Amino acid sequence: MFILTKLSDLIRLPPHTFNVPIHQALTNEIHKKYSNKIIHNVGLAISIWDIEDIKEGLLRPGDGGSHVEITFRMIVWKPFIGELLEGVVTDCNVEGIKVKLDFFDEIFIRKEMLFENCEFKGVERAWCWKPDDENELFIDLNERIRFRVEEEAFYNIKPRTDNSTTRDPEEDEAQKTNRTPPYAIYASCQAAGTGCVSWWD
User: Fold this and answer.
1) Which of 59, 78, 130, 166 is least surrounded, with the fewest CB atoms within 10 Å of its CB?
2) CATH number, residue 132
């Protein structure tokens, strides 16, 4: 689930950090730039592990900061295909189920990746699995769910260029809801032990 990834970057140290030990100053700047952010084709950066190499700082005309080329390792969250995880159901709709972990929200279980004989109940806003003719098992909002990782996807997200200060708040909220995430996990609930944790307790 967690891996160490080696990265190289040119980090700017602002002048007010010059009296801070360089390892600490660089660590702080790396955290600001990387922690809790998606590294494309790598995963979700969690925290710096160590700094392996520090080059001599360079000054640029008109810039009081020091630019330091470094090599460091980050702890990255990147689940492997086939891994079983547990999360909480945050949304159910006709397309499937959305799940979140404590630190990651973009997990999707498409309807075709659910158990056979699953159907969406619009009134309850829940998916229902009928393992036999007599029983109905519901996947409700806020239920703990166990799932199998099937696929990961990275998307190139362009920055928003509309700087208008008169945007409609409802339009903004709709765009946030429908936005494409930079990193998404696609999962399944089709094997024994997957689905709502309460089913198997």
Assistant:
1) 166
2) 2.40.50.140
Q: Residue 24 is encoded by which pair of tokens?
A: 């600490």
- Cα distance between residue 187 and residue 189, in whole Å: 7
Regions of the chain where pLDDT drops below 70:
159-178
Q: How far apart are the C-alpha atoms of 166 and 91, rounded to whole Å?
A: 30
CB atoms closer than 10 angstroms to residue 20? 13
**Owner of token pair 């955290």:** 31
pLDDT tens, residue by residue, 39-69:
999 999 999 999 999 998 888 888 888 999 9
Q: Give Cα separations from 117 to 45, 52, 92, 149 (angstroms).
A: 38, 53, 16, 21
> What residue type is assigned to position 179 of the chain?
R
Taking CA atoms, 16 is separated from 12, 35, 64, 138, in Å, by 12, 21, 10, 56
Same structural domain, 14 and 58: yes
Residue 63 and residue 116 in one domain: no
Residue 131 is given by DSSP the state S
Q: Is 37 helix (H, G, I), strand (E, B) or coil?
A: coil
Are residues 69 and 156 located together in one domain of the fold?
no
Q: Are residues 106 and 159 in the same domain?
A: yes
Can you spell out the DSSP letters for 51-104?
EEEEPPPEEETTEEEEEEEEEEEEEEE-PPTT-EEEEEEEEEETTEEEEE-SS-
Number of domains in the chain: 2
